[in-house]
Automatic annotation (TrEMBL):
Pfam families: Ala_racemase_N (PF01168). It comes from Ruminococcus flavefaciens 007c. Its cofactor is pyridoxal 5'-phosphate. Belongs to the pyridoxal phosphate-binding protein YggS/PROSC family. InterPro entries: Ala_racemase_N (IPR001608), PLP-binding_barrel (IPR029066), PyrdxlP_homeostasis (IPR011078). Keywords: Pyridoxal phosphate. HAMAP family: PLP_homeostasis (MF_02087). This is Pyridoxal phosphate homeostasis protein. CDD domains: PLPDE_III_YBL036c_like. The modification N6-(pyridoxal phosphate)lysine is found at K42.
Length: 231
């Protein structure tokens, strides 16, 4: 069993993250801008996740359906959970009842399945469209040139509400792509009601992402340390 002494590195990491976020927000954003910090939990033991929640983290990001299902019972339920990983249509049913948002919608087909299940359950699911801003073959997400068509299609569906955009920019030149994402977000914002979320910024670029208008930074390594995929 871990005790909170073993987890003290998380206190220190979170202190640094909060400080850097506040610095970037002071410098580049208006005082009433809300910027949320999400703790990304992949490969992290539930004890460590719960320790972050005790320290005030109120938003968790899950990547993998299987891993999430195996850990969810052990989580402190006071934090909100959002899904941020690539999601296969046939897996939506496993997560839709326990997450408050699906950030990784990049096809109409996925949106249709979320809509179908949400309507069946009499609820509305918040979603973000994931954009492949760097046009990388290895990444999921919709191409910027196809975003409007996707959003128009999703807007017709019942039981889902588009709240904004999410992206993972290429690790090199990330500031160029963060800037492009902000432009894209601003350019579509006038056309759709209720957009309030631009989810971008990870451990290596969260301060930059705040500079470019992020409202939600997703941090794994910087909070919990390097991931151990062997466990
Ligand atoms: C893993 C992951 C993160 C966090 O990445 P770090 O570099 O560890 O901060 C953020 N967003 C998504 C979608 C991820 O898969």
């Amino acid at each position: 069993m871990m005790n909170s002494n073993d987890l003290a590195y998380i206190d220190e990491n979170l202190r640094i993250i909060r400080e850097r976020c506040a610095e970037a927000a002071d410098k580049y954003r208006s005082p009433d801008d809300n910027i949320r910090i999400m703790a990304v939990t992949k490969t992290v033991a539930p004890e460590a996740v719960n320790h972050a929640v005790e320290l005030g983290i109120d938003l968790l990001g899950e990547n993998r359906v299987q891993e999430y299902l195996s850990k969810a019972d052990f989580y402190d339920k006071s934090a909100e959970v959002q899904f941020i990983g690539h999601l296969q249509t046939n897996k939506v049913k496993y997560i839709i009842n326990s997450v408050s948002m699906i950030q990784s919608v990049d096809s109409l087909k996925l949106g249709q399945e979320i809509s179908r299940l949400a309507v069946k359950d009499g609820r509305t699911m918040d979603i973000l469209c994931e954009v492949n801003i760097g046009g990388e073959d290895s990444k999921s997400g919709i191409a910027p040139s196809e975003l409007k068509e996707l959003m128009d299609g999703l807007s017709e569906l019942e039981g889902i509400r588009i709240r904004g955009l999410m992206t993972i920019p290429p690790p090199s030149d990330s500031d160029i792509f963060l800037g492009r994402m902000k432009e894209l977000y601003d350019s579509i914002s006038s056309g759709y009601k209720g957009l309030d979320t631009l989810s971008m910024g990870m451990t290596h670029d969260y301060a930059e992402a705040i500079r470019y208008g992020s409202t939600l930074v997703r941090i794994g390594t910087g909070l919990f340390g390097a991931r151990d995929y062997s466990r």
